TrEMBL record:
<dbReference type="Pfam" id="PF03952">
    <property type="entry name" value="Enolase_N"/>
</dbReference>
<dbReference type="GO" id="GO:0006096">
    <property type="term" value="P:glycolytic process"/>
</dbReference>
<dbReference type="InterPro" id="IPR036849">
    <property type="entry name" value="Enolase-like_C_sf"/>
</dbReference>
<dbReference type="InterPro" id="IPR020811">
    <property type="entry name" value="Enolase_N"/>
</dbReference>
<dbReference type="GO" id="GO:0004634">
    <property type="term" value="F:phosphopyruvate hydratase activity"/>
</dbReference>
<feature type="active site" description="Proton acceptor">
    <location>
        <position position="386"/>
    </location>
</feature>
<keyword id="KW-0324">Glycolysis</keyword>
<dbReference type="GO" id="GO:0000015">
    <property type="term" value="C:phosphopyruvate hydratase complex"/>
</dbReference>
<keyword id="KW-0479">Metal-binding</keyword>
<keyword id="KW-0456">Lyase</keyword>
<feature type="binding site">
    <location>
        <position position="336"/>
    </location>
    <ligand>
        <name>Mg(2+)</name>
    </ligand>
</feature>
<dbReference type="InterPro" id="IPR020810">
    <property type="entry name" value="Enolase_C"/>
</dbReference>
<feature type="binding site">
    <location>
        <position position="302"/>
    </location>
    <ligand>
        <name>Mg(2+)</name>
    </ligand>
</feature>
<comment type="pathway">
    <text>Carbohydrate degradation; glycolysis; pyruvate from D-glyceraldehyde 3-phosphate: step 4/5.</text>
</comment>
<keyword id="KW-0460">Magnesium</keyword>
<feature type="domain" description="Enolase N-terminal">
    <location>
        <begin position="47"/>
        <end position="176"/>
    </location>
</feature>
<dbReference type="InterPro" id="IPR029017">
    <property type="entry name" value="Enolase-like_N"/>
</dbReference>
Length: 474
């Protein structure tokens, strides 16, 4: 084939002429670079390859990282992992070989990406997120993504979302908003973990975490400053009573002093807030994770203390009385999972009191079926969205829509096993959830989300809206 025949076959002469004309009109100082970029943009982006690998999350446990290739670049994402999982949430695929990572390896999930998922998605347009996610769901053929693994599917879904944003030449949060049919972008109120307990820390505190919400800040940058300063004041407060050893941290970066009760932890946080001078700008939230210490119909607040376990049982009614007292004594505006995941009746009654935001985490498992039931029964009034519980970006967006249509609050949430991937930050802004729970204002995998929110706020400039006092209503 001659050069002229080759040019004619691929219509290159016309394409090159168009690129040169565009360079002339743009009066570009670097025509070669301009023409190169112009030619590249003229070619529709398609997925050309997907490669996965096993990496470690913030707990030192394997998870799946994916590199998704298009003819425009390479786009990376990694799947988070929780310490617990519910029966109705998407399943992480683990190897189970006790000789490798104590059975927690993800080589099977990696293999599924490299062989099955890659083959199925090659040639697809990365901007068509719904079609990509549906193709993986169809390939898996199970209700809980147990064949390919939610960790494999989610990492690919997130990487494809980044590739789609790049093809459209827009930031990730704008691409997510476009998929969800949204036009406004809001910076969420961060729920900073200050004290860790439950399964996230080695102390005797039964509940999972005590958090602060800087709802009185005027922008996210100020909220982050408030969170950081309060965190460091808390370190001083704890050190004064327990010494430096009391400042060890839990899996999500919250301090884990060996406190004797929830009230003691709340008093520490209240003292730290007082020292910052931000009393009017900060509210408190608690993540109870009551399923972890529910035994039958009782709740064992001393389940982590061997010589006391079984001596401090509380009924559902006792727990409601305790929450009412705490909300009166402290500026608590949100309680997550105040009861066992199957204790619908007490959750419904507590929610009906209207004392605070009642967040469904374990109760909902980010499952559409459980969300719909909770909406019908008014069992909570806020969704804790964990992306790996649903398994794809598309399904995460649909879960948020369900909650928002019910006038619920939405909290985009981290998992105990995180990576430096900042996808959650863009997801929170793109879906205008109003709240994000990414852990303490320390540790790289937590700060990655907060720092990304700083960048987004800076990029939006005057268009940036911080949720602030409207944190429950976005």
């Amino acid at each position: 084939m001659s050069v002229q025949e080759y040019l004619d076959k691929h219509m290159l002469s016309r394409k090159i002429e168009d690129a040169v004309n565009a360079a002339v009109r743009a009066k570009t100082p670097d025509p070669v670079l301009f023409i190169s970029n112009h030619m590249k943009k003229s070619v529709p982006s398609v997925i050309t390859n997907i490669r996965a690998r096993q990496i470690l999350d913030s707990r030192g446990v394997p998870t799946v990282e994916v590199d998704l290739y298009t003819n425009k670049g390479v786009f990376r994402a990694s799947a988070p992992s929780g310490s617990t999982s519910g029966l109705q949430e998407a399943i992480e695929l683990r190897d189970g070989d006790k000789g490798m990572y104590l059975g927690n390896g993800v080589s099977r999930a990696v293999k599924n990406v490299n062989e099955k998922i890659s083959e199925a998605l090659i040639g697809m347009d990365p901007t068509l997120q719904g079609q990509i996610d549906q193709a993986m769901i169809d390939l898996d053929k199970t209700d809980n993504k147990g064949e390919l693994g939610a960790n494999a599917i989610l990492a690919v879904s997130m990487a494809a979302c980044r590739a789609g944003a790049a093809e459209k030449e827009v930031p990730l949060y704008k691409h997510i908003a476009d998929i969800a049919g949204k036009t406004n972008y809001h910076l969420p109120v961060p729920a900073f973990t200050l004290i860790s307990g439950g399964n996230h820390a080695g102390n005797n505190l039964a509940i999972q975490e005590i958090m602060i919400l800087p709802i009185g800040a005027t922008k996210f940058e100020e909220a982050l400053q408030i969170g950081s300063e309060t965190y460091h004041h808390l370190k001083t407060v704890i050190t004064e009573k327990y010494g430096p050893r009391g400042c060890n941290v839990g899996e999500d970066g919250g301090f884990a002093p060996d406190i004797s009760s929830l009230k003691e932890g709340l008093d520490f946080v209240k003292e730290a807030i007082g020292r910052t001078g931000y009393n009017e700008k900060i509210k408190i939230a608690i993540g109870v994770a009551a399923t972890e210490f529910c035994i039958g119909a009782k709740y064992d607040l001393d389940y982590k203390t061997p010589n006391k376990s079984g001596q401090n049982f509380k009924s559902g009614e006792d727990m409601i009385d305790m929450y009412k007292e705490l909300c009166e004594a402290y500026p608590i505006v949100s309680i997550e999972d105040p009861f066992d995941k199957e204790d619908w009746e007490h959750s419904k009654y507590f929610c009906s009191l209207g004392i605070c935001q009642v967040v469904g985490g374990d109760l909902l498992m980010s499952s559409p079926k459980r969300i719909e039931r909770a909406i019908r029964e008014a069992a909570c009034n806020s969704l804790l969205l964990k992306a790996n519980q649903v398994g794809t970006v598309t399904e995460a967006i649909e879960a948020v829509k369900l909650a928002k249509d019910a006038k619920w609050g939405v909290v985009i949430s981290q998992r105990s096993g995180e990576s430096e991937d900042s996808f959650l930050a863009d997801l929170a802004v793109g879906l205008a959830t109003g709240q994000i729970k990414a852990g303490a204002p320390c540790r790289g995998e937590r700060i990655a989300k907060y720092n990304q929110l700083l960048r987004i706020e800076e990029e939006l400039g005057d268009q940036a809206i911080y949720a602030g006092d409207d944190w429950k209503h976005f």
